[in-house]
Amino acid sequence: MPDVVASHIDDYLCASFEMDKEKATYITAFNPAATSKDAHHVLLFGCTEPGSKENIWNCGEMANSDESSEMKYETGPTCASGSTIIYAWAMDAEKTELPKGVAFKVGGSTSIKYLVLQVHYANIDKFIAGKTDRSGLVLTTSSLPTPKTAGVLLLSTDGEMAPHSLELFEVACKIQQDIIMHPFAFRTHAHKLGLVNSGYRVRGKNDDQEWTEIGRRSPQLPQMFYPIEKDVAIQQGDYVAAACTMLNTNSHIVRIGPTGNDEMCNFYMMYWVDGDQLLNEDVCSSSGPPRYYFGRDRHLNVDKIPEEAFHIPPPPNGPAPGENLQGGHHMMMQHKEQSHKRRFHYESID
């Protein structure tokens, strides 16, 4: 960010960078230049048109509310047209390098004419002290084409959870496009109440349906893209699905939303394809609880969901032995209540 100043916690600020329109650029690595002390998250989008013609603008959902930044910057969406997710960072995650022969293709003849950096600010102490911020990403790029092109599919939900409750946030979409995707990295994202996020390829029907894990990780650990150890090719007719298990320890309802006091259920899947034809629709979303569960989709056989989908995994994708999350008591509650929770949701749905 070019020496920006945020006025409030939960401000979202964006900055745009124009790409070479004549020649494509190939991104092969992302090196964060940010700290969780200042930034809740950093997202990189590809846009056909940025959300503002200004170099910096207020691009959060709170941009038009009374609690947003003091009109220091113009307000607008992240992208005015052609929005594509490229990269996401949070919680002091480390550098991400793409596999050999894989790159994100931007500029040139692609629809990505601009890169837009979005930073969600979690702390404004430095700004109160008169300092500015230069959080961002250092990109490794090349002008040489690669045989494989990278893309990102985001699975996310809306929804809410009752006070003092364990809840499942679930989302699934069918791949309608004629495409073969090879997932190679995944990232989970939630706020304070997330226990575990998991993603799956769902193939087949009825009793022959198979749920194959893409990735599973506690979102309380550094939120970088982690490698997928096996080839889980996804093709036309398959479903992609994700589940977030959360424990609301508060005495009030918590909803999905943009601030640190809200929650988020996100599962990012980074994939490559041969050539450069990526998914046309790169966001899969659901209305979340209490309106949507897997059991309400007649194409999904919930009896085939692996039991570990809702369990916190062992290290490195879960906490080390003795390491506490949310005060240390929720892991016991999660395992104790999970089987009842699944029966309640699925047996009550036709």
UniProtKB/TrEMBL annotation:
Signal peptide: none annotated. It is found in: Secreted. Disulfide bonds join C14-C59, C47-C79, C173-C284, C244-C265. Transmembrane segments: none annotated. GO terms for biological process: peptide metabolic process. GO terms for molecular function: copper ion binding; peptidylglycine monooxygenase activity. Pfam families: Cu2_monoox_C, Cu2_monooxygen. PANTHER family: PEPTIDYL-GLYCINE ALPHA-AMIDATING MONOOXYGENASE. Its main location: secreted. Keywords: Copper, Disulfide bond, Glycoprotein, Metal-binding, Monooxygenase, Oxidoreductase, Secreted, Signal. Residues 7-126 form the Copper type II ascorbate-dependent monooxygenase N-terminal domain. Binds 2 Cu(2+) ions per subunit. This is peptidylglycine monooxygenase.
